[in-house]
UniProtKB/TrEMBL annotation:
PANTHER family found in the cross-reference section: SUCCINATE DEHYDROGENASE [UBIQUINONE] IRON-SULFUR SUBUNIT, MITOCHONDRIAL, SUCCINATE DEHYDROGENASE IRON-SULFUR PROTEIN
Key words, A-Z: 2Fe-2S, 4Fe-4S, Iron, Iron-sulfur, Metal-binding, Oxidoreductase
UniProt-listed Enzyme Commission number(s): 1.3.5.1, 1.3.5.4
Necessary cofactors: [4Fe-4S] cluster; [3Fe-4S] cluster; [2Fe-2S] cluster
UniProt GO cellular component terms: plasma membrane
Protein name: Succinate dehydrogenase / fumarate reductase iron-sulfur subunit
Domain 2Fe-2S ferredoxin-type: start-end pairs: 5-92
């Protein structure tokens, strides 16, 4: 069954733009990205849209559909009524380049600010041993496809541009949490430097665990419960534990 769907798509660039209405043919089994492509192939050949895999795995086609951060390739047309107006806009948290394409380089800057895994000095590659339970704990975070929908939805930077310098966002706080949980990460003598860094360098304290990031994650990663809350607990232990504070003061 095919029908005519009503899309309302944002067109514009960094200087401004507008929502324009389009009637686009939709066929059974299609997703929003199919209709955006059809629009490109017909009346809007210059419509800019970023995509790659069309399988929910490359993280390129992030946008806001009816105001909610989603992957266009994983949003089925069947989830909308046939007479519903479907609004497609670029991610609001990042600067627009053109139409549905944003400049997400903020995320690459933040990624570079997280120090990499530090291997233990007394072990050679090939000698690393980990418990299966530790492997599994971080496996969940490795499902991340870097779609940046969690970054887009997070009110700390979505509504407050001036927080961008201090706050790395859920995706990169999750990366810090993953490294902090790694039993072989040798960063710092006590391996407790990661929570300190999360608080001081990545703005962990600005997160008020609203769970919006978890709600939009297409990989269903429990960002808040499994990464951010444990990291906050570790940072709080570290900050308020008098022995650890004394040790840190002596070391610094
Ligand atoms: S839980 Fe924290 S990181 Fe996630 S959206 Fe809310 S404030 Fe942002
Ligand atoms: S954590 Fe989830 S929402 Fe955030 S970038 Fe990774 S896959 Fe996307
Ligand atoms: S096109 Fe790759 S995630 Fe949508």
């Amino acid at each position: 069954m095919s029908y005519l769907a009503h899309l309302r798509v944002w067109h514009g660039d960094a200087d401004g733009g507008e929502l324009r209405d389009h009637v686009v043919e939709a066929a059974e089994g299609e997703v929003v990205l199919d209709l955006v492509h059809r629009l490109q192939a017909t009346e809007c050949p210059d419509l800019a849209v970023r995509w790659n895999c069309k399988a929910g795995k490359c993280g390129s086609c992030s946008a806001e559909i009816n105001g909610k951060p989603k992957l266009m390739c994983m949003t089925r047309m069947s989830t909308f009524a046939t007479d519903e107006v479907i609004t497609v806009t670029p991610m609001r948290t990042f600067p627009v380049i053109k139409d549905l394409v944003c400049d997400v380089s903020f995320n690459y800057v933040k990624a570079r600010e997280v120090p990499a895994f530090e291997p233990p000095a007394d072990l050679e590659p090939g000698e690393y041993r980990m418990q299966q339970v530790d492997v599994q704990r971080s496996q969940e975070f490795r499902k991340c496809i870097e779609c940046f929908l969690c970054q887009d939805v997070c009110h700390v930077i979505r509504d407050h541009e001036d927080n961008k310098e201090a706050f790395s966002g859920p995706r990169f706080l999750m990366r810090v949490a993953e490294l902090e949980m790694h039993p072989l990460d040798a960063r710092g003598e006590t391996r407790a430097d990661r929570p300190d860094e999360a608080r001081e360098e990545h703005g962990l304290g600005l997160c008020n665990i609203t769970r919006c990031c978890t709600d939009v994650c297409p990989e269903h990663i429990q960002i808040t419960d499994n990464a951010l809350i444990p990291l906050k607990e570790r940072a709080a232990d570290r900050y308020y534990d008098p022995l650890l504070r004394l040790f840190r003061r002596k070391r610094d």
